[in-house]
Amino acid sequence: MFDKIYKEKIENRILKDVMGLGEKAYIVGVYCAFTPKEIIASAGAIPVPLCAGNNKPIPEAEAHLPSNLCPLIKSSYGYAITDTCPYFHSTSFIVADATCDGKKKMFELLKKIKPIHVLSLPQTSETKESFNYWMLELFKLKNLLEEKTGNKITDESLSKQIKLYNNYRKALNSLFSLNKENIPLLYGREIDAITGAVTFDYNMEKRTQDIKLAISKVKERMNDFKFLENMKQKPRILLTGCPTTNKKVLDIIEDSGAVVVAMENCGGLKTINLVDENINPMKALAEKYLKIPCACMTPNTERLNLITNIINDYKIDAVVELIWHACHTYNIESYFVSEHVTNKHKKPYLKVVTDYMENDKEQIKTRVEAFLEILKFNFN
């Protein structure tokens, strides 16, 4: 139901919207979940997630970047230098997050193409000093946006945007929760199509309504006996690890007969915790975004706690971890994830290390199918 056609329909409407805004719109490109979009929107600007999920522009990127670098970084840069991301072309400047060394150095090259402001993340989220440092970074961003847009960011404007984004996150929670039932109602690629088609934050009320409309359509499956019987037979997979910017592994899992009922990755359950609406808005934003359990933080015990909650709430049968080539932070942390999943929860675990190219699809498919066969044997 919610396949590429659905996604493309909404994205075409969104692209038409942004092109219709004209030169008066101040569009800010973003790359990472750590960027507080509420601050950007409070300045009257429009935050736009930039392209990073296709292998096509990577050869161009490798003229400047090492070939053995993370494909997400190469794809991001490739889209920029080839000017093939429609949103990148419309951006006035970019806000980026220093989540890893590869990205930090790539951003230095990106500055030759677009103005860019890098948010310097602390290396841990567990100390008062780190929080204070992060607060200063967000105030730097606030001051910069005021300077660039000419608009004052007030507590009132921040609170308004926080409520809008919280309503959106509540809708996302409701969407994801449809897979907590004994029989899941959504494939992982459908979740990706629905959420991926509404990431352009031009009109948050409309984005939230799009999610709610999708929920109402999905709930109709509760009366589809054939669909429910089919889903009932499928192993329930948690997909964790690097961002699923490229859908190769997600598609392979579901083409092999399983259903990805939950994704812990960026853009999934990792990033939809709410902002506290009852305290100072800048402090609330700093708290919310610093709590994102990304592998760039050390230690990152909150990620293991989140995985525990997902395994329990979504009745997970097995965990698949996606690691993009050269993503050392997630690859090293996969040791802790594997240990946590297999020892604490007694669940099967599979790590897939790959890039955006298609040449290893059959190899991955063989591994995933063998993994799922073991699951089916355990079921029986």
Shape: globular
SSE run: HEHEHHHEHEHHHHHEHEHHEHEH
CATH topology value = Rossmann fold
Q: How far do the termini sit from each other?
A: 30 Å
Structure explained in plain terms:
- This protein has 380 residues and is an alpha/beta fold.
- It is built from 16 helices and eight strands.
- The protein has a four-stranded parallel β-sheet with strand order 2-1-3-4, sandwiched between helices. A four-stranded parallel β-sheet has the order 6-5-7-8, with helices on both faces.
- α12 (248-255) links the parallel β5 (236-241) and β6 (259-263).
- α4 packs parallel to α6, α7 packs across α13 and α12 packs across α16 (361-379).
- The model has no long low-confidence stretch (mean pLDDT 92).
Short note summarizing the structure:
The protein is 53% helix and 11% strand.
Tell me the layout of helices and strands.
Layout: H1 4-21, E1 27-30, H2 37-42, E2 46-49, H3 58-61, H4 71-82, H5 86-90, E3 93-97, H6 101-110, E4 116-119, H7 128-149, H8 155-177, H9 188-196, H10 204-219, H11 225-232, E5 236-241, H12 248-255, E6 259-263, H13 281-290, H14 301-313, E7 318-324, H15 328-344, E8 349-354, H16 361-379
Parallel strand pairs: 1-2, 1-3, 3-4, 5-6, 5-7, 7-8
